[in-house]
TrEMBL record, chain A:
This is ABC transporter permease. The keyword Methyltransferase does not apply. It is found in: Cell membrane. The chain crosses the membrane at residues 12-34, 117-142, 154-177, 212-230, 266-284, 316-336. Keywords: Cell membrane, Membrane, Transmembrane, Transmembrane helix, Transport. CDD domains: TM_PBP2. It comes from the Bacteria. GO terms for cellular component: plasma membrane.
TrEMBL record, chain B:
Belongs to the binding-protein-dependent transport system permease family. CysTW subfamily. The lineage of its organism: Bacteria, Pseudomonadati, Pseudomonadota, Alphaproteobacteria, Hyphomicrobiales. Residues 70-257 form the ABC transmembrane type-1 domain. It comes from Ancylobacter mangrovi. It is a multi-pass membrane protein. This is ABC transporter permease subunit.
Amino acid sequence: MGSLARAYGKPLATLIALITVIWILALILVPLGAMVQQSLWWRDAKGSVSLTIDRLYNDIAVLELDQGNATDPAKKAAIEAQLAAKQAEVTELEAQEKNPPKTYGFANFTRMSSLHFYIFVRTIIYALMVTLLALVVCYPVAYVVALASGPRKAVILMVCLIVPYAINELLRVYAWLMILDYRGVINGILGWLGIVDLDNRGWIPFLENPSAVFLAMIYTYVLFMVFPMVNTLETLDRNQIEAARDLGASTVRIHRRVIIPHAKPGIAVGCIMTFMLSAGSYSVPSIMTRGQGGDWFSQLVYRQFYESNNWNMGSAYAVSLLVVCTIFILIMMRLFGVGLRDIAK
Amino acid sequence: MSASAADSRSAQLVLNIYVGLFVLYLFLPLAVMSAAAFNSYDYPSVTQWRGFTLEWFVALAHDQRLLQGLVNSVLVALGVIVVSIPAGLSGALILTRLGQRSGTMLYSVLVSPVLTPGIILGISSLIFWRQFGVAGGLFVAVMAQSSFIASYAMLLFLARLQRQDRTLEEAALDLGASHTMVFRRITLPFLAPTCFTAAVVAFLQSFENYNTTVFAIGGEWTLVTEIASRMRFGLSPVINVVGVIFVVVTLLAATSYVVLRGKPKR
């Protein structure tokens, strides 16, 4: 802090510090805290309260009728007192009905139904599979782009990779929607070959199968694995590979002992990004399934917010997802022995 | 020569074929999507070809909701630039002056949004701003997106600041320049190219964003969220036309980026 003031002067340093603090508080930490807090309380919606209110209104109506008929002043006063008491009770209960008391606890987390928990676990497993498959598919590609081709070819390859990477993820999903749809490319070809009968709706319903989401997801996020690996592999001195080869190492051994150790930070970043994106993806499942395939966890979260209007439950789901992603990041960092600074390079 | 050379040549061939297939895998779906934009059939398809047409381009030009979405997207992206560039710059300036330990703490907090699933950033902003009576909409979308785009901007600034020659600033101070003058005449000009890059990156990230925006946008819409809801209900080749425009723009931008980036190397 002192060196900041020395370099830029007090007023400017204060401004810089202020902006950073606002960023941290208003955009990162407090919203996160608000979400966690929201996940920790709920309101008991008591149906019995509404019933009691209805009964009280009935009583009041009867009393009012009595009041109108009563002639004895003493009796009238008694009815009026009763009326006032009932009305006070109604006001209190209505306040409670509108704004039931908050209860704090972990019930939003433990109340997750078994179906939703199953979807939660399935989403994580699918995301892990997407990550693993992307890693296996991308490693050779990254190796070729970074090490095994001339500079000219590398540039062309980079363009070939950047273009699909930069195109909006929705459009990448949409392309697969067109391929797998009822009247999509694959069914079209099959129909042309006479295998399926499109005119009588005899198409194969690819979109009703969870693997459609899986396919589109790999396509959408595979490149987030390539670029971190290319970036780290580009810094590898090719002479090291030559030296290892001259010393008689086999290709497998060169990859295992020279190239992969060097690529570690890139592999870690690629895995973290791919996992995080696919576990938290809303775009791919919501477009690919159209409500017919199995749900992805992010869709449950969205519905809690925008359909059930249960923000507390939705927040609890979101926090669960965040916890899983954080654990995954920590495991990857430990596994590959990289720090946060290597990751964000 | 001989055995091992032939081995490595065939290995190279296998690798090349593999990469070729991979590139094909990346581009074929996009080609299918683009082709359907020119098909005169009101359901996006390439297998039922009814002849070449440009009618969907005309339809797009008359689609008020998509055009309004485009305007909203640009507004949000400009808002994100205004918020995230000063934030990212400030964060980077502080981090370069901090010691190892406190630096790492702050660094972890500031990059954490990059590693957080997008939907969570959208949700937490939505909840946070509702407490102030601000419902989901363009403003909340700006805030939600800025939380992680500012981190990207900060990383860009950090990389640039690492290459800064700090003695220049010190020399200016010794020669009697005021702090403001040093910042304005030395630090900012040094960072100017990065400011530009960061603004472009911020604009693109914001424009393309879906997973964060869809939670924060409430009843409003951006181009991307509107496209997404069209993809779910009511497919039309108009979406493919948007796709074609995205593909062409990206192709041009990526080519010029790689060419520009590749030049100083050689």
